[in-house]
Amino acid sequence: MRSNAVIALAAAGLALGALASQPAMAVEGKLVLYTSQPNTDAQQTIDGFKAKYPNVDVSFVRDGTPRVMAKLRAEFEAGAPQADVLLIADAVTMEGLKKEDRLLAYDKADLSAYPAGIHDPQKMWFATKLITTGIVYNTKATMKPTSWLDLTKPEVKNLLAMPSPLNSGAAMIHTITLTGSLPGGWGYYEELKKNGALAAGANGDILRQVATGEKLYGMIVDFMPIREKAKGAPVEFVFPKEGVSAVSEPVAILKSTKNPEAAKAFIDFVLSKDGQELTLKQGYVAAHPAVALPAGYPARDAIKLMPFDAGKALADEAASRKRFSAIFE
């Protein structure tokens, strides 16, 4: 009798397992991802997705966000967009596509584990990670900054480098965030200019200048100096006390997708705990609050995010670009 009961329970378990796997097995067909993720990260994301949805044939196009968008816009013009899913650097670009009615809302996306304010309220794009911008400094610097305002001090005169928002989407988001959050607004950037700040180059160039001592301070995305410090570079990274800006590498489904079910499954995977654990494995801060932070980062509750409205940033971008140019050009 006991043996029969065990067999019956095992059979029931197999039946339940089969039922549980049916939704994943039912998702099939081709899926095209356009992404600005590094090639290795993109392939890892796809491999993780395919482990859950083996019947989906995924291909991807990878380039920097401006080039990915240029390709996509050319396809829009031709009336033949190829991408099903878009995973790019910033929410402002996604807001532009949302405004143009290019994105498909995914109402059933499960966001119950996430805090309010990091995903699109209409569920047209979703944050996948949090890449913050803070302060990097060379360890030989005498003044150890803890605040954004420290960069306007005499000790930093002619020793600060930062990416230009005229050439970087992340830097534009950072600029809009700071000017909207710091008491001085645009006056803060005017003070930086008076203090000899150099606004040019990408994040990698900022890291090089600070690590070599050419400059002693910089504004930079978090993971670069944290990783280089672990390798022995003479740099420290600071999350300023007022808070930091963040680029969320959002993911979205294009309205023109040829395979909406597979596209929704991709969103489900990226937002799931497993998908977010992959973000940690890749060395980034996952958007999911229950996922640990990479080595070298403080506790999650020690990182304060400044408020950011992607829709307002999109509306203000041209004016912000003009204002920054007037100060630094």
From TrEMBL:
Superkingdom of source: Bacteria
Assigned GO CC terms: outer membrane-bounded periplasmic space
Pfam short name (any one): SBP_bac_1
Annotated GO biological process: thiamine transport
Signal peptide from the UniProt entry: 1-26
Coiled-coil spans in chain: none
Entry GO MF terms: thiamine binding; thiamine pyrophosphate binding
UniProt keyword terms in alphabetical order: Periplasm, Signal
Record-given protein name: Extracellular solute-binding protein
